[in-house]
Amino acid sequence: MLGTAELRRALGHYPTGVSVVTATGADGTPVGMVVGTFTSVSLDPPLVGFLPDRRSTSWPRIRAAGRFCVNVLAASQEEVCRDFADKRPGRFEAHGEPGPCGPRLAGAVLRVDCDVDRVLPAGDHELVLGRVRALEASPEAGEPMVFWRGRYAAPAV
Ligand SMILES: Cc1cc2nc3c(=O)[nH]c(=O)nc-3n(C[C@H](O)[C@H](O)[C@H](O)COP(=O)(O)O)c2cc1C
């Protein structure tokens, strides 16, 4: 039987990007969660995905909003990442600007505005498919942040 610690350690050898999925709640309160599971899914129709933990308190609020913005972080944004991971007060005012699907974070390498298309069960996570409404890549933001073996890094280019 595979243990979760063993799985986490071994699968951490697979590098991921780091994104902040944001949304705006019905009462106007912004919500944001850090994910390493953002991925492109389909070109036609245009779909992307990410996998929130069933225990996440942010995900039900994002789901209720019905739309979200994926902000793919740049390698230089470790402080931004920690602000959101640690839920530091003032994080939206410091880094965010209003967007149609959720706050857009300045300095991100890519922002993807989505409608929630489908939510599928996936063990102790859920697989969220988002239908892409708009996207904005920012080459000037530089290299993307990479999470690998428990550390933040940048690709060697
Ligand atoms: C680099 C990194 C990647 C993460 N990836 C995910 C992820 O893909 N899915 C997820 O549910 N939580 C992920 N987390 C954990 C969440 O950011 C957060 O801890 C969790 O959602 C609990 O907060 P919440 O209750 O506000 O949702 C990740 C955290 C870090 C630092």
From TrEMBL:
A matching Pfam family: Flavin_Reduct
Highest taxon above the source species: Bacteria
Name of the featured protein: NADH-FMN oxidoreductase RutF, flavin reductase (DIM6/NTAB) family
Alphabetically ordered keywords of this record: Oxidoreductase
Residues in Flavin reductase like domain copies: 11-154
One Gene Ontology MF term: FMN binding
Organism annotation: Saccharopolyspora flava
Family: Belongs to the non-flavoprotein flavin reductase family.
Phylogenetic lineage: Bacteria, Bacillati, Actinomycetota, Actinomycetes, Pseudonocardiales
